[in-house]
TrEMBL record:
TM helices/strands, residue ranges: none
InterPro entries, per the entry: c-di-AMP_regulator, YbbR
Identification of the protein by name: YbbR-like domain-containing protein
Superkingdom in the source lineage: Bacteria
Organism field: Flagellimonas algicola
Amino acid sequence: MVKKFLQGLNRRKVKVFFIFLLCSFLAWFLSNLSESYESRVNFDLNYRNLPDTLLLGNNAVNTMEAKLRTSGFQFLYYKFWNKRVNVNLGDVQYRNGRYMLSEDALKKQIEQQLSQNISLLDLDRRQLTVDLYQVNSKEVPVVAQLDVQFAQNFILDGAPVIKPATVTVKGPKKEIDTIRHIFTSKLEMAQVSSDFSEEVLLIFPRNLVNSIFSTNRVEVSGAVVKFSEEVFEVPVKVVNLPEGYQIQTFPNSVSVLCKATVERLKSLSAADIKVIADYRQLRNSDSNELFLEILETPEKVYDLRLLVNKVNFVLEQQ
């Protein structure tokens, strides 16, 4: 009984000893952290206020080492988290073909962002060279890549609408001068029978390493209508006949297939379509055939196609 009591007492003494030891260590640790130290820390650089005529290159410096004097608490914070500082590029100067910030300007900017109990003693460089370059800009048209399969008797009414229709590209002149247009990613749809509107990404050329675009996506939309077909018998007119001759074609009229809405087809007639054959296409050959072409296409017609593309003829002198 007495032995068990003594063992329990010894355990409590050990626990109390370790508690006092831990408290002593914490008091010593906190006392040391409250003292001032000098040490080096890394800052992540965040460039801001970029002039409109300049762009930041891919080789820009992202970190900087600085020597600070502050309490151990502050250094403990910097050891676990890299401090981010803003670099105002409005103070940048152009010297000897390079853009740079002087040491004094850089120190002033950093000191304004540090707490009052932190002293900036030194930087790891006398000046900061910033990878900047003169920027040009131009508007580039967007070209939609569509793979749209329409349901039977449905068709796109006019060209697809792209918003925005152009994008602004900014970059070195030698880069952006090579750009003529920007394609969208392919928009694939099947059995389309109603209007559509889709947001699609733009495809940027890989060689534009220092250029930026005003947006990376556009909206592509289209109006879809139901159409019908009607065949019109259109007379053939021969042009550029030699003087003093007349011509007779066989047949003297041909079938033309027209695709449009039902309402539009009701308002059309053969007189709205012009089919011609140019006699000069023969070029003194002995052929007795003339190829046909549609000279005039009525408005709001989706397709106009000759069902016969040539005719025979007889040329007679008047």
